[in-house]
Structure formats: structure tokens, C-alpha cells
Sequence to fold (233 residues):
Amino acid sequence: MLSALPILGDNEIYVDQSGNTASIDLEQLGSSNLIGGTSAVSGSMTALDLDGLSMTLDINQIGSNNIFRSDGIDGNNLTAFFEYDGDSNVMDILLNSSGTITADYVNMLVDVTGSSNTFDLKVAENSDSSYLDLDWVVTGDSNQFDFDIDYANAINNVDVNGSSNTINFTASGYSGTTSSDSGYFFMDLDGSSNTFNIIQSSTLARDWLKIETNTSNSNICITQNDGGTATGC
Fold:
């Protein structure tokens, strides 16, 4: 069952979904739009909730100062596409954050064109999300990305073209023991004065990381740790 209604103010949509094989496509054009939960009131958005297996989610917020907020996207076999074109947008997502259910075989693409955007993504940080495929394509400057993932057998591709961006990536969990079932992080960076803090701390596992850069005045800190005490950067 899907509930989605616009409410007063700039474009605002609240969503509360339960049930399997849902296909949800939400598009907002313009500025100061909100997508969130059913407890919203005009001008103030709470987080939305999506529950079910084999969901397809397509979010397009085209403009500036838009907000997408979810504290519960839960279920296996999720295919999700998030598109943000504009500046000063906010995306805040928890995916199986409580760890009470599974969120395996998730395929998620986040495509960002613009500057001064803020993205906070937490995936199964109290459980694990097996076979996660998470891709970021970022074109713009001064964006902030924080993602915290507990996974097994995962792929993360990050393509950044811009300057003064900040990415904080923390990966934990058990990622396997062979190259075919381990955590993999690949970043392609073009731009200057970027800051990246990358932590891979899977347990008794093989974490893989590859970075290709064409950059100046950037700070890149990488920590891989499957035991012991990391010194950090």
C-alpha cells in the first residue's frame, strides 16, 4: 500500500509504503521541495518509510534547496535511482538502520549535478547489507557526502568531477575471503582541494580499494583495518 499526498507550501510529498514489488517514481521540479513521511506538517517534513521486497524507487529532484528524508527503506532486492540537479539540496537516508530485517541485493545509483549539496546515507550499520551495489556520480563543487555501510560482498563506485568536495566513507562488516566476495571501493576523482576520509574495517576479510585521481591540493586519508588499532591519518 502506498500513501502519497502533496501538502501546503512549496511542493511537498509524504510517503508511507508497505508491500512487495512496488514501483515508485517521484519527480519534483523547482526549488524548496520536500519528500518525507506521513507525520509531516506544512513546511516541516519528517522521514518517510518504505517497506517491502523487490521495490523500484526513482527519485528526481530538479532544482535547488530540496530535501529527501527517509528513516526506513527496508527490504531485499531494492533498485533505486536518485537524481539531483541543482544546489543546496539535502538527501538523508537510513536503509535497514535498525538491523531488524535484511536489506540484501540493493542496487542504488545517486547522480548529482550541482554544488553545496549535503548527502547522508547509512546502510545497515547495525546489521549488514549483502551484495550491495552503490554508485555515486558527482559533478559539482563544495558537496558533502557521508556514508556509513555495514556490508558483505559489496561494490562501491564513486566518480567525482569537481572541487572542494568532502566524502566520508566508513565500511564495516564481514566482506568475504576471496576477491569474488569481498568489499570493493573504487573512486575516480578529477578536481582540486577535495577531502576524502575512507575507512574499511571488515572482520577477517579482504577489502579492496582503488583510486584514480587527477587532483591538486586534495587530502585523501585511507584506513584499512581487519583487526588491531588503526592509527588514522
